[in-house]
Task: structure prediction
Amino acid sequence: MGRDDSKMKLLTIDDSRTIRRVISGIGAMLGYEVLEAEHGAAGLKILEQCSQDVGLVLLDWNMPGMNGLEVLKAIKADNRWQHIPVMMVTTEGEKDYIVKSIQAGACHYQTKPFTQEEMASRIMEAMGMGGGT
Amino acid sequence: MGMGGRVAVQVESVHEALQVAVVDVLGRMAMTEVVLIHRERVSGFRLDFEAGGMVRLSGALNGMIGLTCHLGLVEELVSRIGGLPIDQLENEDLMDGVAELANLFGGWTKTNVGQGDVQVSPPMAFIGKEVIAEWKTDRPAERFIFQVNEHVLYVLASF
Result:
């Protein structure tokens, strides 16, 4: 049985509650429930508990503890979660960071700052709903 | 061009990148128009309004970027970015908002400069009517004064 994307949740892992709130608002606007984690370990714990409900992980790069690349590698190394698409959401805009994250398995890369429309479009694209520009 | 000239060019390119970053960040995240109204050399890196935040850049670029302004502007920006009414914002929202603005200004400046391996520190932030924060530095600081709606935003750079 295929997954029902309309019931999938988004998981935002970002140490800034401002950014988590922005992403939660955009997710809600698109009809998704958004789970929030303020660091990588908390994000992985959420995946331990309910990875079957998570349709997309939105992952910051610079965080206390595990950085975003380490979290991404942990997600992609676990066969329970490696199918979940991961979008990096970060101020790191250099090519080197983008290449590293794509090589590690990220499906999308969104730099901050972003507009609501850009982020909504990226989420829809990552969730297979079109919206790409 | 001598060494001093190259350094001056590099610092000015950071200043230009910072100005672009401020306009980009507030325009995209807070949907707010921002206009640079003045810039000046100042004697110290001092955050002396009711809210302030800063990050350090290290590596290929070494310096500090900070912002300071009255609480009213922080409330307006955080409200616009997060989509919450001002009367529902808690102090922690404001503090995190200032910290994130400092992080975005620093991170986006770094990207705009494109100088290779540069690390941006975790941000620091404060909120409080009686707080003044100052960092002693042997490098000059530049203060950029932006008009943001009816408010004024001070952005500092020391490189």
User: Anything to note?
Assistant: Chain A has one domain: 5-126. Strands of chain A lie at 9-13, 34-37, 54-59, 86-90, 108-111. The radius of gyration of chain A is 13 Å. The longest strand of chain A covers residues 54-59.
